[in-house]
């Protein structure tokens, strides 16, 4: 177990924690309460050079611009149509710096792309995307961009009576079709951002109304909403995961917080942008930091 | 199995369905897709003479009127304070006839009662209520007002690889503390109506904002939201369950719809009010109707 992890402080901390909570004694945690939550983008799979879901949506914008040429002069359809990834990346980057001038039309287009699609059609479109799409620089399908050591960790925890959930800022209905094949996590244990759904003619449809952004303080809210228990294990990689880790740390039971550090330009990417505060909290509060470079023998497996 | 059910058409239909979907052949359903959803009030436990949650809330209103005497002149606190159950029952009954003149202040008071309670305190208050409260006419604790044949059915389905969920118009956070002990259903498989939650100081709090009414067309929306699969088995007892049963019936897989008929004044209650349309749909669409009088050997067990 955890063979893809280097013997070192991160692996030791995980093994020690799991040993303590599964052994009779003061730190024992009953199996029902062994709930583990995992962020997805940057924690279970690669989030660079852009969110996988953004790639899916850009292709959707391009289809829309194909059908309706008038869109080609308007952002973000213009960027999608001309392949201007810099504009798209800039819109997200500027958003995190407090400038939503490009993010606002991007968000509006994302929501509009969800207007009235049945949940079955939506899942089929996503499955089709994942069959064809490849990561732009890693040269492998997105479905092979999950981190092998994290999949090992999911299985290790499950082998010790934990139940694992994804709690991601990404779209819940975008992750569900691949969470089973990639991570062994079924749709009912995927929590994420959502548009509102509507019932019509014996079917459920997506809408263009944003329902919930599952990020930052939304994460503990949404995970309580879905699970009704406070987790004892949480893994994330960015500032958007702070509240989820903090909520887990405030459990009356022993708990472990894990932060993935992207420091491996050779095998993945090297960045701390968007994770500065989380890393500071980890240093202050005893959260475990797993360095991709030092703690993982492999990133994506064979 | 199903020993509390009389040998008859309802039990036969259930046993036949479960046999078909668990046997290799054209009707086989893989275990992952064996999702069963159950309404709670009137389907898993007694909903008369009033919803159990309303009893809980009336006690809360009485506490509030105790603390703040000014409330005693205002509905619904006045009714709670004076024990005027007729006013409270009337408010709900008039709502179902399209008159919200009393239901509106009742709803406002229900929401106000949820202002800023931590989810742990909320669960503790509910657990305390269930320790003391007894059903007003059946002379037993509410926790013994679950229907034994339905608990048998939950275990029967689970024994055949089904995963069972509660999908109720009742408050999710009201049901969660007792769904385990009463039905063997853990909190993460309880879906219901909710107030919005908020994160503050490493904890999650209820608010006075209504988030979702899990009734009628809200039921398939909410169950998809939570489960991400279309159920193949659904049980309900009222018009508020129609869309959930209809959504299940539209599955590409074999499915079964079960409607509980309250026709046993001696052992429980005899009423069809609020279920007229559902019973008509059952007759038209081949939904199975289980008569409490004829199909259940016992209602509440020993």
TrEMBL record, chains A, B:
It comes from the Bacteria. Gene3D superfamilies: HAD superfamily/HAD-like. GO terms for molecular function: hydrolase activity. SUPFAM superfamilies: HAD-like. CDD domains: HAD_like. Keywords: Hydrolase. This is HAD family hydrolase.
